[in-house]
Amino acid sequence: MKKNIKVSIVLSSYNHEKYIKKAIDSALNQTFSDFELIIWDDASSDTSWQIISSYTDPRIRAFRNEKNLGGGNAKKAITEIAVGEYIAIHHSDDIWEPDKLEKQVAFLDANPEIGAVFSQAQIIDENGDP
Predict the structure, then answer these.
(1) What domains appear along the chain, each with residue ranges and CATH number?
(2) Distance from CA of residue 5 to its chain's centroid?
(3) CA 32/CA 125 separation, integer angstroms
(4) Nearest Cα to Cα of residue 35 among 103, 95, 88
(5) pTM score, two decimals?
């Protein structure tokens, strides 16, 4: 993994087998490609880890905790190993628009006095319908 990565996407998951593939795919399919994707499975008891570990993309660093730490502690652990200039928090039941990172990185680069950004969200049900 190269050390001069622009964005570290941090994604923690716990028992989200139904959603994790779409979440990972939406990160990997970004129009902005200078990122690492750090995935932390927080001791899921479903097939989340099997889905996560099936990915072979070199931008992914996947970890599995043996004991559930809870969402906040998992994100803290992930951000401590992130090497990107920026950190993007991704949730295992979220789907990103393909140009999300491109827009956010462009804005942050153009506005160095800004420390954080967020995006609009559309709430969808478990089938992906609004």
Answers:
(1) 7-110 (3.90.550.10)
(2) 15
(3) 27
(4) 88
(5) 0.90
